[in-house]
Amino acid sequence: MLPFKLVYSDAYYLPIGAHVFPAEKYRRIRDRLLSTGVAARDDFIEPQPATDQDILLVHRPEYVQKLKSGTLTPREEMEMEIPYSRELVEAFWLAAGGSILAAQLSLSNKVSISIGGGFHHAFPDHGEGFCMIHDVAVAIRRLQRDDRIRTAMTLDCDVHQGNGTAAIFAGTRTASSLLPSVSSTSLARREDAPVGGKMRQAHAGDVFTISLHQHNNYPLWKPPSSIDVDLPDGIGDDDYLAWLDNALSSGLRQFEPDLLCYIAGADPYREDQLGGLSLTIEGLKRRDELVFRVARTRGIPIMVTFAGGYARDVEDTVTIHTNTILAAKAAE
Ligand SMILES: [Zn+2]
Which of the residue ranges 28-42, 180-194, 199-213, 240-254 would you say has the lowest mean pLDDT? Predict the structure, then answer.
């Protein structure tokens, strides 16, 4: 029995047909956890779909209306890069509900993981890059609306920059000009790059966003996060972990979140079809361990979503995500 809950539904499956996004990964992760005895059936909890009211905390009414009535333009559907269907809309409403539930559970259990979600390329008024609804942003706004949290931090370790996250929360940051801009064009700068910034007075509703990603990759236009770490191609485990440690420490020196939302993409993996970094499976596990250790040491509740993962062998993606759950367990 795990010391935290795994939020999961068979209906997380995205009905997108043959696609580079392995929609069956969620079920495979669940099966792996059960077959290896990492988790028992009681460790899983089934979410309810988010309500339209929840979705509207982040997304524009016109966009929500288009999704519900099936009236996206061909261009809007193309930009989403997944084929529209009513069933797909339901899957995204459920993913958002799963992230809300995981965020709620993490406040009482310190940790909760949704075996899904992390759709960080969704914007208030459109979807992009396999993402229709920004489930993590919906969860943050819902908990803020319910006065369960005042502030949150997103830590995005997917190989692709969290452009939707940055855009959604851009207006809520304070004194962003004080924040360090991490440039990693030269790793030699690691020692002196993100040291700046002192703790600021956070206001209710503030969300501090951190994204570690491959610079030379989708999305082309990267709206600024609070901290962006633009990694060069081919970065391996040790460099990546040093940058992560640096960015997370820097963020937490400046901002005390009531909730940490960890977007644990599996696509920094060296065998990923859509990534250009060189992390190993072991390195990705060390990444997860670092994040859980920091959250635990500082007493910050952490909720996790899984985002991307396009390994040539889908079993590797399943292993990377399963390891995230093992790392969370080991940190308890
Ligand atoms: Zn990705």
Answer: 180-194
CATH number (domain holding residue 159) = 3.40.800.20
Q: Name every residue whose Cβ is closer than 8 Å to that of residue 205 and which is 6 or more positions away in sequence.
A: 144, 150, 151, 172
From the CA of 147, how far away is ligand 1's center (Å)? 31
Q: How far is the CA of 274 from the centre of ligand 1 (A)?
A: 7
Taking the C-alpha atoms of residue 293 and residue 327, their distance in angstroms, rounded to an integer, is 9
- Ligand 1: centre distance to CA 188 (Å): 26
d(CA 64, CA 62): 6
Determine the average pLDDT of the residues in 93-104: 98
Cα Rg of the chain, angstroms = 18
pLDDT at 68: 97
Distance from C-alpha of 17 to C-alpha of 270, rounded to nearest angstrom: 25
Ligand 1 mean position, distance from CA 17 (Å) = 19
Q: How far is the CA of 164 from the centre of ligand 1 (A)?
A: 12
Whole-number percent of the chain with pLDDT over 90: 87
Residue 308 alpha carbon to ligand 1 centre in Å: 4
Quote the ligand 1 centre to 3 CA distance (angstroms): 28
Domains in the chain, number: 1
Q: Which domain holds residue 199?
A: 5-331
- Condensed to tens digits (0 to 9), the pLDDT of residues 124-174 reads 999 999 999 999 999 999 999 999 999 999 999 999 999 999 999 996 554
Distance 199 CA to ligand 1 centre (A): 30
